[in-house]
Structures are given as structure tokens and as C-alpha cells.
Amino acid sequence: xxxxxxxxxxxxxxVSGTWVxxxxxxxxxxxxWINEREEDGINKCPFCPGNEKQTPPEVxxxxxxxxxxxxxxxxxxxxxxxxxxxxxxxxxxYSDTNLFESFSGEGFHEVIIETPYHDKRLVDLEIENIRKIxxxxxxxxxxxxxxxxxxxxxxxxxxxxxxxASIPHAHSQVIxxxxxxxxxxxxxxxxxxxxxxxxxxxLCDMMKEEFKNSSRLVTSNNDFCVLExxxxxxxxxxxxVPLKHQPFFEDIxxxxxxxxxxxxxxxxxxIDKILSKPAYNFVIHTSPLRLKRKAxxxxxxxxxxxxxxxxxxxRGAGFFINPVLPEKAAAMLKED
Amino acid sequence: xxxxxxxxxxxxxxVSGTWVxxxxxxxxxxxxWINEREEDGINKCPFCPGNEKQTPPEVxxxxxxxxxxxxxxxxxxxxxxxxxxxxxxxxxxYSDTNLFESFSGEGFHEVIIETPYHDKRLVDLEIENIRKIxxxxxxxxxxxxxxxxxxxxxxxxxxxxxxxASIPHAHSQVIxxxxxxxxxxxxxxxxxxxxxxxxxxxLCDMMKEEFKNSSRLVTSNNDFCVLExxxxxxxxxxxxVPLKHQPFFEDIxxxxxxxxxxxxxxxxxxIDKILSKPAYNFVIHTSPLRLKRKAxxxxxxxxxxxxxxxxxxxRGAGFFINPVLPEKAAAMLKED
Lengths: 336, 336
Hints:
The structure is a homodimer of 336-residue chains. Chain A is α+β, with helices and mostly antiparallel strands and 336 residues long. Chain A folds into two domains: 9-179, HIT-like (HIT family, subunit A); 183-334, HIT family, subunit A (2-Layer Sandwich). Helices cover 26% and strands 23% of the residues of chain A. Chain A contains seven helices and 15 strands. In chain A, strands 3-4-7-9-8-13-14-12-11-10 form a ten-stranded antiparallel sheet, sandwiched between helices. Chain A has a four-stranded antiparallel sheet with strand order 2-1-6-5, with no helix packed on it. In chain A, strand 10 and strand 11 (224-227) form a beta hairpin. The longest helix of chain A is centred in the last third of the chain and has 21 residues, at 254-274. At the A-B interface, strand 2, helix 1, strand 8, strand 9 and helix 3 of A face strand 2, helix 1, strand 8, strand 9 and helix 3 of B.
């Protein structure tokens, strides 16, 4: 056993081999981990200007030249998560009884406060703001990758309580882990298998097909396309994919960020309208730092509205049932 | 493409290789797939006695001798799901463009109505009723396995709206599929790997350890133990495991069913008390019909309360964060 089980740590399920983060520092009382909390007003919101002292000191911000760190004057602010799922790297402690493998939960967990305005949602922001948010994502990934122990940096957003957001003020999150997330691992091995057979990238080939047969292609611009993936797990699951083969999101260029911001905002607005401001998650799937075989990853964003409850078939067996045809969702997203 | 996309069908994600069921027959309107529906009163509940005509004709029931099928007098009633995720087997239609693989969604989807009483939850039933429900599960698995195309029969329950139950009247479900669910596949390969290394069953070994060090063992009787798994993905995730190595749930014997019903009911009551009647799912993980290598599966029940919302880290990357130590959950479940 690790010396302190209350610190965040990784545990491996001896049956399925799945890694889980156990992060029990927030306390033992159910009120600490049941996700329902009352909405705090602006006065108490830790993400509002004037309340900067309620968060850990900022690690990055975009702010007016004359303004001081940890004071108002910022447009985007990055702070360590006050209740991190992982703790900053120190010496890693391993425990392995052959059956019960675990190690200390080293990593980084940051919060990106997307706007100083308490009541603005991401979709309400100007494209110029969205552009800056993507630039901050890029900056944080580049920065966190410098740590040698980091294997993966995941940028994601929870919008709305039922998608896991515990604070309503618009924010996204970054988690840097020493372990590859399961779905990234599955995509990597899928891409590697396809590459070994064909010497081509599966996502490049998939886009080619989608451009030929437009029934799942929602829209595109010079650098990106938006599509409802063939085997969407969730209704209106939507991918935003760079047209050119690019392994790393963090290699994105200035003009590409601009085109991404435009197509991303338009897609969010469309989903907001069709599904009546749904809760949603999005996640940037960028390449792992190191790949085993020659294939390279193709980065993309997965945007997943939350319109249905996940039931036993999904939660208990990992099998997804999607009640909406991706072709139908694409048609609705294409309508004016 | 398949000839009719509106029929349930399986699709394989070309990137990750994950199979998904697309089942869009319930209609195109958002109201048809958004999970929020008003609670129907007893008069309109399709699962209440007197309303038997509102479901497809029953395929099995336990009922008073003199009573007729599809009329009142039953204590447990099994009917095909009116909105099945899969359709009964016919000729299977394949479509494979190398990139977009799909086939028609053949299988069975049944509903087990657990009690004639509209307001009773599973946890409120007598042990004798629970015993009969497990017997019906066994009967349905044995029956559905007879179909040659069936690869797996999954029994599961959604309790509460937020765990995916769309009808409040107590019921569980059975889905028989021609494909192995992802989590079962992961457990099978984990068990096979462990067996190749050690010539032993990983779940048998795990229980031995848990009996030595009781911090995650909640309780046990002659045939079963209840434990919080070492790498629990969810707060209060609870497994009920037969002490003897048994691959198939459906091989369970009369006296074992009795002991399972006792320990299962006691566990449900405990969780209901500690977590204030939470929504939950449970799933029976039984052995696939055919295994590739010599190892055999060890069946068990996974009971997963729904106390937190699944967020982007889980939904978008498949990485679970559990805010409650399994050892703490076990201690709470052991308290009187």
C-alpha cells in the first residue's frame, strides 16, 4: 500500500487492466463528493474578478499591461485546480503486490477561466476571445509537456451541471498525466493497425470518404472540417478535424487557430440552438508524446452534447447505444 | 450502406475500433430521445397489471395457475422491449467499405417487470421475490443463448432517471448481442493474461487477498462475498462475487440463488441508506459463450450507484476519477 491513501493516486484494476485515479482528498463526507452544489452568486464565485484570492495563485494569464497577477484586469486566467485530481510531480511512489498495482498520483490539474464575466457561456464569447482560449490551450500543453514524467496532456471542458461542471462560471480544464487515457490508447492502436496495413492515416482516409459522400459532413473551411462520426457513441457527437495531417494540436499555427475558432464557434451555436442549450463536454485528442510504431496520430476535437442519461448497458458493459443517426444529426446541423 | 439505416444496426468506429449500436427507430424528434419524460400515473403505466396490452406479448411470466398470459395474476413478467435497441434475428446484412463497417442489429432486448406493484422498488421487495427475479434472469439467459448468433447475454438494471430508467415501475433488462461488450472483452483478456502467467484465476486470487486484508471486504456468506474493488471507477462501486470459481451465472444452483438474494438485498439496503436512495445500475458479468484460450471466466455482479456526474475526463478520454476511497466505502457499508 502507498503510505498515504488519501493523496491522489493511480490504481490498476487487476481484472480488466484499467487504470483509475482515486482522489479522495476532498473529504469523507458525501456532501464533498456528491456533485450537487448550490449556485454561488457573483460575490462568492471563485472565478470572478475581485475574488482572485479564492483560487491558488495563477500560473498564466492574459491581462491588461498595467494589471498585477492575481488581481482584476485579466481576460483569461489559468490557476491550479483547488481540488486537483492529481498533485504536482514529486518522487513517484510505487506499490505493487502483483495483484494490486498503484502509484502516487503525480501530474498537473489546471483550470482555465475563459472570461471574467460570470454569466457568459463559452458560446456567448466573441470569436476573438475563443481564439485566445485556443492559444492558451496551446501554451499550457507546450508548458506542461516539458515535465519529463508527463505522458499525456488532456484539455477538456464540462459545460453544465449534468456534464460534470461544479462551478457555473465558464472554464475549461487541463490534466497532465503520467499515463495514457484509455480512449487515446484505443485510438492510437487503431491508427497504428490501419497504418501497418495501408501505410496511410485512417482519419485522413475517413475525411476523404466523408468529402465524397457528404451525409455526415457538416461543414468545412480551409483548414478544418466538422463531421458526425460514422460510429457516434452519443447523439450529436461531433468531431472537428484538421484537413491536413497533424499529430499535435499544440503545433497549430496562428491562421489555423483563427479558422478553428470560427468553425468551432459556429458549431457550438448550431448545437446550442438545435438542442436548446444542452450540457456538453469537449476534449482535445492530441498525439501522445511518444508512439511505439511509425504511424502518427491525427489530432481532433470531440464535442459531446449530453442529452441522454448513460444507463447500465453503457456504464456496466461499455457498450453504447445511440438513438440518433449521425446522418440525421448532420442534416440538422446543416439546416439554417 | 445497409438498406435501411433506421433499423437498429452495429457500426464500428474506424479510428478506435469500438462497436456502437445505432438505434434510431424511436423517431427523429428530440422528444423521442431526450430522456426526460413525465412520470406516468398507474393508469397509464405499461408495466402495471391491467395494462398488459400496452406491452408486446409476454415471452415468460411467473403467474397464478388459473391466470391467462397477458392478463393480471403475474408476479414477474418478461416482455420484449417496445423500443428495442436490437431486433430479433433474421438474415444478417453486412456492409463493409474497409473504413465503414456495419451490420444489421440482430439480437434480443427484453424487459423483466420485477413486481406488479407500481410503487415498489427492487430494494423494497421480499427476499423471496428477489430470489424469483434471479431465477428469471437465469431462465432468460439460458433461453436466449440457444440462438446460434448470440455471443453474449447481458442482464442489467437502471434504477432512477439519472441512471437511465425511462419508466419508474421496477424492471430490469436483458440484451442478447452478436458482439461482446467492450468491458467484458477487457475482463476476458485480463483474465486470460493472468491465467497464462500464473495458471490461476485473477478473481479467485483477488478474493483470497481481500479475505486476508479485510479493508475492502464488506461481507460474505457461504457462497458469496461483497467487496469494493481495489480500482473502483465510481464511488461505492460494489461487486458481488461467488466464492467458488464459476464461469457462468446461469449455472447457479438453487441454494446459491438463495444466498445471492440474501446478500444482494442486504447490500442494496445498505447502499440505499448510506447514499439516500441513489439512482444506480447493476450488471451481471457472466462468461462469454466461447473463450479463445484456456482460462475460464469468473462471473460476478457489478453494482454502480450514480452519485456523481460523469464529466469530460471520463466521457471524452475514458479515464475515471473516483473521489471516494474504496476502503472508506467498505468501512461505511460495514457500519451498522
